[in-house]
Amino acid sequence: MTLRNSDFDEIRVWDNENFVHPWEGMEHIGQNERTFTETADGIYVTTEAGKRLIDGPAGMWCVQIGYGNGEIADAMATQARDMAYFSPFNNANSVPARLAHEIAKRTPGDLNHVFFTTGGSTAVDTAIRFVHFRNNILGRPEKKIVISRQKAYHGSTFLAASVSGKERDKGWLDQAQGMSYFLPNVNPYIRPEGMSLQAFLDEKVADLENAILEIGADKVAAFIAEPILASGGVIVPPKGYHKRCLDICRKYDVLYISDEVVTGWGRLGHWFASEDVFDIVPDIITTAKGLTSGYVPMGACIISDALIDSVSGEKSQGATFSNGYTYSGHPVSAIAALKNIEIFEREGILEHVREVSPLFQERLTALGDFPIVGDTRGMGLVGCVECVVDSNSEDSLDLDKTVGARIDHHCQELGLILRPIINMCVFSPPLIINVSQINQMFDIMEKGIKLTTEDLAVKGLW
Ligand code: PMP
């Protein structure tokens, strides 16, 4: 449907009065001036005003193969006509069965049991519920605590939020009591002055072991970690961190849940990052987003054969894993995911990401030369610029909180959307981005940071 500019005046009222957005700030609810984006192609989205912008965050780190892919759209339309829905509770369907098999072929080790969910939060929820369920069957109902990390984000359902460690999100919402434990931030950038990276790594690994010893291994069910802590600010842990954490988990019979909602499906140049990038075979992988390239909602909680075997058959005591969704394995989502995988392979998307990532990371590092930039970090096709406006403080909450939004504002004027988070901007463009588009993206960012520096100087903040 083609809308005229004037139509948006009325639709903006509906958006404000009827659509409650995620992370809705209640102070300004009903008064937002959000930009409408109505069409998109490749790495670009087009706004209501007809402005075409590079989608720096690929939606929410999810539109891997880019927008406007007719093959996925056609496959979904055909599936909707043939069979829009089947009940996963009562029946089977070939499309999600094929998808489960295709996923299992690409996961590390014996992670072959795929439980389909509606997104990332429900995948994490399912993982925690399965871990608890298993410990109930194994006769150790007190082994339930999940160790997570400060700044982690695992989702917005009650359990997933309860293992998420962003302080800012905890203020007004309840958490599951006594179920989680948070390790200190693993960001090497904020390590004490003079501390070597090796010493920092040793300390972070020791944090996990000490937590298990403090709580008691008989009470700790699992450790959950994003390979790269994404919305917490693209925090890349020191090399060897995940491997050593997995060793600690094995030592104390604690399960390892690798949350690959962002790092899966090519973001780091591999189907999954756990084994190929971080050298670990976890017990459970949670994933979503890039699984369908964001064309339709779907997530998955992928469980190892060993875990399933430990509670199946006679060992199950007749238990049922009473967890699941009306839309588990939805055929329209599943066909989109199957097509997505086919396109990844045919177009060599993983190889492409590995090829262009060095340029992306090189241009990202160069942004560190701007005086307001304190740190740049990333891997594959994901990056973060962290500004330090008040150079005497490295606590982001003390800094000019709007600096990320200021950079984003300037970049949008120049043709690029970023994702501002307090004093940071994160970005993870569609994986099909080419060399000249990467250069264009970073050229704009350089201008945006320069203009922001000038703004701050005018305001006396810099
Ligand atoms: N885990 C991670 C690492 C995420 O980044 C997110 C979403 N950004 C989630 C879980 C939750 O996924 P969803 O929003 O699809 O529920």
From TrEMBL:
List the Pfam families hit by this protein, alphabetically: Aminotran_3 (PF00202)
CDD domains for this protein? OAT_like
Q: Which GO terms describe its molecular function?
A: pyridoxal phosphate binding; transaminase activity
Q: Which UniProt keywords apply?
A: Aminotransferase, Pyridoxal phosphate, Transferase
Q: What Gene3D superfamilies does the entry give?
A: Aspartate Aminotransferase, domain 1, Type I PLP-dependent aspartate aminotransferase-like (Major domain)
Protein transport keyword on record: no
Where on the tree of life does the source sit, at the highest rank? Bacteria
Q: Which InterPro entries match?
A: Aminotrans_3, PyrdxlP-dep_Trfase, PyrdxlP-dep_Trfase_major, PyrdxlP-dep_Trfase_small
Q: Does the keyword field hold Glycosyltransferase?
A: no
Give the family from UniProt: Belongs to the class-III pyridoxal-phosphate-dependent aminotransferase family.
Q: What name appears for this protein in its UniProt entry?
A: Aminotransferase
